[in-house]
Amino acid sequence: MLQGRIIKSLAGFYYVESQNQLYTCRARGKFRKENMKPVVGDICDFEIDENNEGYIKTIDKRKNQLTRPPVSNIDQALLVFSITHPDFDSLLLDRFLANVEHKNVKPVIVITKIDLDQSLIEKIKEDYHDYHVLFVSSKEHIGIDEVKAVLKDKVTVVTGQSGVGKSSLLNALDIHLHIETNEISDALGRGKHTTRHVELIKMHDGYVADTPGFSSLELEMEPRELAVSYHDFRRLSESCKFRGCLHDKEPYCAVKKAVEDGEIAKDRYVHYLSFLKEVKEIKEKRYG
Ligand code: GDP
Ligand code: ZN
């Protein structure tokens, strides 16, 4: 039995990489029955028969999974935001962070175009001090090696609004994905999800998914899930007096205390409250 990672799926075949070899495999019928179709990113056991045909036998438990398009076992999401042109949008960043962390994917914030403006760097560092934040200029080749180091040995999705400099960054990293990053990654371009197909491209000893990844702006989660989506909120919520605290009107809330003490940025908390309102409204609409 061999073990490998599914890096591509096409027309009923799975392309499994194992020790730098690529094997074309089919899945045994039982997966369909168990409603556990293999997806790109899955780690699987497979065997090769005497006709050199591969069969996937079992799939390891997934550590996480995206649905559109289906890809699993993602280590991290690069959330690309420009410092200017377009203006740094912390409300959108906080929205992405909630979605990413809710899916149990580690976010890495990449702030681009720092050659154009440095005035916000300190504020971003402070507001997101509990996050991994990289400051880059693709134009001046600043911070590019740090991004390379982050990609090493990891499975990464890259996401960000159109115009923030994703293509330029990927070029600077010498990464050439198959998708038109420009069009599909437009975070506001709902309905542009034309890619059913996803592939993991090997680079810098890791994999980059040629998918826009988290381009959905919808917060598809329960209020309680939102309350523990940000890892620092989650950590603090263990000290909130009430189980299931939504860090809103509840007394003795550790998150609100952290905001008062300046440990959590006021802006982030204000954004959180607006998202909380939003997910509550979605819930009410759904269940009446
Ligand atoms: P994408 O839509 O996210 O792929 O963004 P692009 O990579 O196409 O970049 C959008 C615009 O920003 C282009 O005009 C780029 O030349 C410019 N740009 C990208 N990165 C930088 C940078 O680091 N510094 C400066 N000054 N401009 C940049
Ligand atoms: Zn609380």
Automatic annotation (TrEMBL):
Q: One GO cellular component term, please give it.
A: cytoplasm
GO terms for MF:
GTP binding; GTPase activity; metal ion binding; rRNA binding
Please give the biological process terms from Gene Ontology that the record holds.
ribosomal small subunit biogenesis
Q: Could you list this entry's UniProt keywords, alphabetically sorted.
A: Cytoplasm, GTP-binding, Hydrolase, Metal-binding, Nucleotide-binding, Ribosome biogenesis, RNA-binding, rRNA-binding, Zinc
Q: Where in the cell is it found?
A: Cytoplasm
Q: EC number(s) in its UniProt entry?
A: 3.6.1.-
Q: What does the entry list as the binding residues for GTP?
A: 112-115, 160-168
SUPFAM superfamilies from the UniProt entry: Nucleic acid-binding proteins, P-loop containing nucleoside triphosphate hydrolases
Q: Does the keyword Zinc apply?
A: yes
Zinc among keywords? yes
Q: How does it assemble?
A: Monomer. Associates with 30S ribosomal subunit, binds 16S rRNA.
Q: Which family does it belong to?
A: Belongs to the TRAFAC class YlqF/YawG GTPase family. RsgA subfamily.
Q: What is this protein called?
A: Small ribosomal subunit biogenesis GTPase RsgA
UniProt source species = Sharpea azabuensis
